[in-house]
Amino acid sequence: VMNIFARAFTGNKPGLNLQKKAIHLRTGESIPGEIKQIVENRIVFDSDVTSATKLPSDQIRAVRLTAVLTEPDLNEVQQDRLLTVPRINKIYPPTLLLIARNGDLLRCRLVGMTEDAVTVETRLETIEIERSLLSQIIWLDKLSEKADPAPETESPEVTVRAKLSNGNQLSMVPQKVTEEAIIGSHPYLGKTEVNLDDTDVLIFGSFVSLA
User: What is the pLDDT, as a whole number, of residue 147?
Assistant: First the structure.
C-alpha cells in the first residue's frame, strides 16, 4: 500500500501562484507559518506575526506546506466522488483531504505529522507519506455540521482585521499603534503584530470575521 501511494504522490505540477507557507484558521485568519508537527489534536508552528506556537487542530481550516500553491484538476465525476462519503464510512468518516504537489488527492484520518512525514489512516490501513510530496492539508467538516453557521454575536471589544499584501489576513484586538505597525492580541494566537507597509486594507468593527 505504501508503494502505491508513494508512486501516486510523485511528480510536480506547476503552481498557480507563489505565496508563503500559511495556516488558515476557521475564524477567517490566514497567517504565514511553518508547521513543525501535529500531535494530540494540536499543531505546533512558528510564525513571525504571532507569539503563539500551538493551536488546537479544531481551529484549523487548512495549512499550506509549500510556497507554490498547487490546485487539483478535477472533472465533474471526480468531484462528485470526492464529495461523497461511502455509507460504510459514515460512522468513521475521513477528517482530512491531502493535496499532493502533483495535484493528487487523498481523503484520510490524521494520525500525526512530523517535520519529515505525515501519518494517516485510510481504508483501515495506517500509512506514512513523505511531507515533501504534499502541498496542502485541508480539514473536512463533520457530517453533522450545518452548511450555514449561526450569525456571530457582537464582540464587546472593537477588533481590526489586516489584509496583507501577500494574501494573508489577521484579526486582533488592537492595543498599540506605531508609525510602522499595529500590535494587539488574538484569543488563539496571543500577541500579534502586523507591519503597516505590508498591509493593503484595515477593517474595523465587531463583525470583521464575516468580512
Answer: 45
